[in-house]
Task: structure prediction
Amino acid sequence: MGKDVTSRTLQALATKKRIYECGISLMKKYGYENITIEQIAKKAKVSVGTYYHYFQSKFDLFVEIYRQGDKYFKDKIPALLSRTKNCKERISEYFALYAQLALKDGLAMVRNLYVPTNKMFLTHGRAMQDLLMDILREGQKNGELPPEADVCKITETLFVAARGVIFDWSLHDGSNDLVADMRNMIDRLASTYLL
Result:
């Protein structure tokens, strides 16, 4: 019985992953607004009912994109940041990794995500934001950031700037060096907060 549950669980995870990947593939090709659940289900070779078993709506694909990004930042980024010496370097490296995530997603996906109707950027309490706030709080503790500095507001401001850099990269059809531009913008902005 245990093997059946495990194989069913693995099959369910594989089905959900296939639906997600097919949805992302269609989104990159046609744009989020131009695809339907029926198209996603057809490409994934599942019924529409099966789609709804794993995702409540088309918007849930967006939620899953952000969930995976947060998981990456929670699981992988702290170890990568451990090489840095101080708060300024951690902030710079953090946003270089954020830019690399956009590069990994690709220009087509970025153009689907970085639109004014996407309110996922405004969702608070995500792992990405929490990690940056931890970096800033540690900087405060170490005397690199003023004790009265509003860590939440700084986090929000840095993300606004980072989204602008990525949006600008997409406007230029990915022709500029996203990581270098990100470092330049974030380093300049972060230096206004750091002691």
